[in-house]
Amino acid sequence: MNLEIFEHMEKYRFEQLVLCHDQTSGLRAIIAIHNTSLGPALGGTRMWTYKTEDEAILDALRLARGMTYKSAAAGLNLGGGKAVIMGDPRKDKSEQLFRAFGRYVESLGGRYITAEDVGTSVQDMEFINMETKHVTGVSADFKSSGDPSPATAFGVWQGMKAAAREVYGDSSLTGKTIAVQGLGHVGGYLLKHLAEEGAKLIVTDIFADRVKTVVDELGATAVDPKDIYGVECDIFAPCALGAVVNDETLPRFKCKIIAGAANNVLQEERHGDLLEQKGILYTPDFVINAGGIINIADELQGYNRERAFQRVAGIYENVQKVFTIAKRDKIPTYKAAEVMAEERLNKIARISIGSGVQ
Length: 358
Ligand code: NAD
Hints:
Elements: H1 5-11, E1 16-22, E2 27-35, E3 41-42, E4 45-48, H2 53-73, E5 79-86, H3 95-107, E6 112-113, H4 122-129, H5 149-168, E7 177-181, H6 185-196, E8 200-204, H7 208-218, E9 221-222, E10 235-238, E11 257-258, H8 269-277, E12 281-282, H9 285-288, H10 291-299, H11 305-313, H12 315-329, H13 333-349
Parallel strand pairs: 3-5, 3-6, 4-5, 7-8, 7-10, 8-9, 10-11, 11-12
Antiparallel strand pairs: 1-2, 2-5
Helix pairs in contact: 2-13, 3-4, 5-6, 5-10, 5-11, 5-12, 10-11, 12-13
Nicotinamide-adenine-dinucleotide (NAD) binds next to helix 5 and helix 6.
């Protein structure tokens, strides 16, 4: 193993790393807890075919740290954690595996609360729930918040409106041209809000049937996936993949704002600097796409959808705060989002967690 784990944990101020092994079920999992100053570390469990143990550990650490920033910036009293299970979600799942994992979550006594993520489902959460109550996203019968996508989409819509206000002096999206990349869970709900507000929609997806539905139902204009970056529009909304702002796409953008649901939109931090130089307002991903975690966090008090969505609406103000910090400190918006999270953490916890999400 090449990874210097304690050095890495010290550099980024991690609290705890748990390696979970169960002989009977074949469980090999990692739980990373970055910071619990604001509250228990909440973050999903990812199941993935990691090539090496180092890759899995680093992914858990990186994702856990991202959750600290996301929850802090969202104003939640939650810390940052994440778990990864090494394995193929199509072949290696079993009740024993998730129950064994659930026992590890239970052993942490509530310092870590888990949820669905890439490769895990409601059914898996229910197996975990047989061993621990520190799990969210079990089925609606148990008062769960359910699919996070409607809340994420609602938050992205609010964040877009805050960005429109910053650029155009008016938060209305009526008549604005918005290019949406990815018509999946979040993209689908987002498009309904945008269409109701009277935005002009340009859409793309790699699945033709999804595109056809949106064109037929909402009167959107379709473009080829490779052409979406260069369309003339007010807002580009990445709702498919990460790293879509990169050396290849940057020269092609003809938008004024980038605001969408995707995680890790900037391939590298310098791409955020370049967007600013180009006069494109970037609405930082972990601030604008926090609707899902805000919605899940509401479960911890006994889920109330109306209250949860009211809190998600606060993404409008959070995005405005990011723009204010960017102007105050004369820094690009992606850095301002990190400063916003760190300021809250340092104020509440009176400790420094080091800087930068990457
Ligand atoms: P999804 O898988 O339901 O939808 C993604 C869509 O993007 C799919 O329709 C897919 O076909 C399309 N797509 C993939 N590659 C594409 C390409 N090259 N060009 C165009 N379309 C492409 O996922 P989702 O739940 O809607 O999430 C979308 C993004 O938002 C992801 O990056 C996810 O990490 C992020 N996110 C989601 C949530 C949530 O609540 N679901 C919360 C926070 C962040």
